[in-house]
């Protein structure tokens, strides 16, 4: 490893490290933290973690200097983009056990609720834009609807702003990169066993073994079983295993083979319906205020005898890299993945205003039987060189991928919309007379004897998406004070929808076909000025493209004949920001940014009733972030985000009839983005009060979030508090107590459906024993 910067030493209590540059040392010290967690602590060690000193100052466990994504060609300090890294220490201290748990620590991200066309699973919104398909594992898109675990993750990287230059088709909001655990060059064994309220049980094992100088293996295993605190019926269990092996640990050519398997079985949550405000008519006096109805937190509208959700994910990866003598690196990654999402889930439907009018809820059965197979290959070349006195740090590469999704649904006999006693879906009555398809708003019985026969519908959808991409990134260092970061990516995108002919209830439906072919180029550019070695000020511009059928047939953006000929939705983002590493050794990172994003060709209904790229959305915002150590004992991680999202042009609506249409400008023009809080903040902090004793706590604040573009239904704002304490029993065992939702706050953490809001978990306590050898 070479560097032109001034060298400095790094010291550890157990190992001596060769002399390297300060920048390289900071990166190595940060990457060494997960390994340090497993190292045997000397008896006289006063701190919880072994001491790692860079220039005589300990590097924070909550801080990292370099992204694991090789497309970032500069340290995060000098990257002209908002990037938040959730380290393994933050994940561990906060007691997170899923991806959505971990993302609570990052303001500006909201979780969407499942709906008819929107699958149950991770449904993320970043800076107000749907980022459902923008999750990556080690830089490669992770397709298929699922709920992701964290047992095999080293860290989570949240990239804000247009993501297409990095990942191809994507939203304007950003993306999530999950960094997997991989074999290390030392032996260690990590294990945890947790018990808690709401029948919480969880165990993990992380074993790393060095076979010889060139071979190391690692195995991660997880088992989890728990109910959701305050939601009596809601529960789930899952287990996973992730083995990996690295060949050529100290060779110029290194290969890592890994496999990931996770499956789950749960009773999915139904949430609470909104008060459905009538706007006109004889029932206007029954208007609700648009918030979730007032019922006890444990109220569950699902059916134990009907509802279920089963998922399975299998991912196999071969990652080969060759280091050339001049520092250039050639890497090739090939990955195969398969994701299944199979469920029957009750949506508490209020579409007829029945919750206010009759005091009833329609148990609408949303179902899905889906399987996604994906195959991807990514080849990249990275390195650095100096030409005409100007230094370049570059990465260039090509990516090829194929995604194949088959989707269907379940049919029931008897059905879930039986007009028994004229109940239909309006539910003027409830109970046995409706075959329990309608229930009472107050005190519904989840154990109602709902009897049925379930079969898979003959109506099946197949979507095959092929992409070819080429990209190049370069950080140009004109002087130590001035840098230019540029990136360019070209994508060839093709997605084909096929629905074979089928017969249902005696009626035959003809086969249908839709296809979209699109080429799009995205780019980004950022100019960085460094007032000092520990700071940067930047201005950047970036673009993003969202083609029709972006979700590959497994989400809200489904391909159809209506949208197949449309252009990709193009977005652009302007950002001005600054980053500082302050206090001795740069142990505390501070960041701030202001930005504006625009989507000028959003898909909406045009004045002639067709779907066209004529809509417009804008988002303006401010972001603040902090990560690292205030003192040697005091760690902090958090931020604040202000989002001002407006739907400038939502197209047209028909205020006439089908036969005599009268298209007028949408009455929702100027409304606030759904699923977008104007203000959100998070803070997690921990303090070593005594040697081996750490206390910590956190808060999450989210202001009001609208559930629909009408801005008539919304989840109220809330503040949630968490607490943690850990005690080192000895050098091998640590006990950690986490109390989530300390005040037992009733809040709603999932919106996006206009029918209901997801209920946040109540207060829970878990005690975890962590073992390190």
UniProtKB/TrEMBL annotation:
Residues 272-742 form the TonB-dependent receptor-like beta-barrel domain. CDD domains: ligand_gated_channel (cd01347). Gene3D superfamilies: TonB-dependent receptor, beta-barrel domain, TonB-dependent receptor, plug domain. It is a multi-pass membrane protein. It holds the Pfam family Plug. It is found in: Cell outer membrane. Residues 1-38 form the signal peptide. Residues 76-174 form the TonB-dependent receptor plug domain. Keywords: Cell outer membrane, Ion transport, Iron, Iron transport, Membrane, Receptor, Signal, TonB box, Transmembrane, Transmembrane beta strand, Transport. The keyword Manganese does not apply. Belongs to the TonB-dependent receptor family. This is TonB-dependent siderophore receptor. It comes from Duganella dendranthematis.
């Amino acid at each position: 490893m070479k560097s032109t910067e001034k060298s400095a030493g790094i010291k550890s209590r157990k190992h001596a490290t060769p002399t390297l540059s300060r920048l390289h040392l900071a990166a190595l010290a940060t990457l060494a933290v997960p390994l340090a967690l497993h190292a045997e602590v000397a008896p006289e060690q006063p701190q919880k973690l072994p001491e790692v000193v860079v220039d005589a100052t300990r590097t924070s466990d909550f801080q990292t200097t370099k992204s694991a994504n090789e497309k970032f060609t500069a340290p995060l300090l000098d990257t002209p983009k908002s990037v938040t890294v959730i380290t393994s220490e933050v994940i561990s201290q906060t007691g997170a056990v899923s991806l959505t748990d971990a993302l609570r620590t990052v303001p500006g991200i909201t979780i969407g609720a499942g709906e008819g066309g929107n699958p149950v699973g991770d449904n993320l919104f970043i800076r107000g834009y749907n980022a459902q398909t923008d999750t990556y594992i080690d830089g490669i898109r992770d397709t298929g609807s699922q709920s992701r675990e964290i047992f095999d993750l080293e860290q989570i990287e949240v990239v804000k702003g247009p993501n297409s230059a990095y990942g191809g088709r994507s939203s304007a909001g950003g993306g999530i990169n999950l960094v997997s655990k991989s074999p290390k060059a030392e032996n260690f064994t990590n294990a945890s066993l947790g018990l808690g309220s709401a029948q919480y049980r969880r165990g993990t094992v992380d074993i790393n073994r060095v076979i010889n100088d060139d071979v190391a293996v690692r195995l991660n295993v997880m088992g989890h079983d728990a109910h959701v605190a305050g939601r009596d019926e809601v529960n789930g269990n899952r287990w996973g295993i992730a083995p990996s092996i690295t060949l050529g640990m100290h060779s110029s050519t290194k290969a890592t083979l890994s496999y990931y398997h996770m499956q789950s079985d749960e009773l999915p949550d139904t949430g609470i319906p909104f008060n459905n405000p009538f706007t006109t008519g004889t029932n206007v006096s029954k208007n609700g205020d648009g918030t979730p109805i007032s019922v006890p937190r444990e109220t569950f509208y699902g059916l134990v005898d009907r509802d279920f959700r089963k998922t399975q994910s299998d991912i196999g990866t071969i990652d080969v890299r060759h280091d050339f003598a001049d520092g250039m690196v050639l890497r090739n990654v090939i990955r195969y993945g398969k994701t299944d999402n199979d469920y029957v889930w009750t949506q508490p439907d209020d579409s007829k205003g029945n919750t206010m009018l009759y005091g009833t809820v329609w148990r609408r059965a949303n179902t899905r039987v889906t399987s996604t197979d994906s195959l991807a290959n990514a080849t990249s070349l990275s390195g650095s060189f100096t030409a005409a006195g100007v230094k370049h740090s570059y990465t260039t590469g090509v990516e090829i991928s194929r995604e194949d999704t088959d989707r269907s649904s379940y049919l029931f006999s008897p059905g879930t919309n039986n007009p028994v006693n004229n109940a239909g879906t309006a539910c003027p009555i409830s109970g046995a007379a409706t075959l329990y398809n309608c229930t009472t708003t107050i005190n519904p019985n989840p154990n109602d004897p709902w009897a049925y026969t379930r079969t898979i519908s003959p109506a099946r959808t197949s979507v095959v998406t092929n992409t070819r991409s080429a990209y190049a990134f370069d950080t140009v260092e004109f002087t130590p004070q001035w840098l230019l970061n540029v990136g360019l990516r070209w994508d060839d995108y093709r997605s084909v929808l096929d629905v074979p002919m089928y017969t249902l209830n005696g009626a035959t439906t003809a086969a249908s076909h839709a296809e979209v072919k699109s080429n799009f180029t995205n780019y980004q550019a950022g100019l960085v000025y460094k007032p000092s070695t520990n700071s940067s000020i930047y201005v950047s511009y970036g673009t993003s493209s969202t083609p029709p059928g972006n979700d590959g047939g497994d989400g809200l953006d489904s391909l159809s004949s209506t949208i197949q000929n449309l252009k990709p939705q193009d977005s652009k983002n302007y950002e001005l920001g600054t980053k500082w590493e302050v206090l001795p050794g740069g142990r505390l990172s501070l960041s701030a940014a202001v930005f504006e994003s625009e989507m000028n060709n959003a898909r909406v209904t045009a004045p002639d009733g067709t779907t066209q790229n004529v809509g417009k959305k804008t988002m303006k915002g401010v972001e603040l972030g902090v990560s690292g150590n205030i003192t040697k004992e005091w760690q902090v991680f958090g931020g604040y985000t202000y989002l001002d999202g407006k739907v400038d042009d939502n197209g047209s609506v028909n205020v006439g009839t089908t036969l005599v249409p009268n298209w007028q400008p949408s009455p929702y023009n100027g409304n606030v983005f759904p699923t977008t809080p104007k203000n959100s903040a998070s803070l997690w902090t921990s303090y070593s009060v005594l040697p081996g004793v750490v206390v910590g706590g956190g808060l999450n604040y989210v202001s009001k979030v609208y559930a629909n573009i009408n801005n008539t239904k919304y989840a109220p704002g809330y503040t949630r508090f968490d607490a943690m304490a850990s005690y080192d029993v000895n050098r091998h065992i640590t006990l950690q107590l986490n109390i989530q939702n300390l005040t037992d706050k009733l809040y709603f953490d999932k919106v996006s459906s206009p029918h209901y809001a997801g209920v946040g978990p109540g207060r829970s306590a878990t005690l975890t024993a962590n073992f390190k050898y």
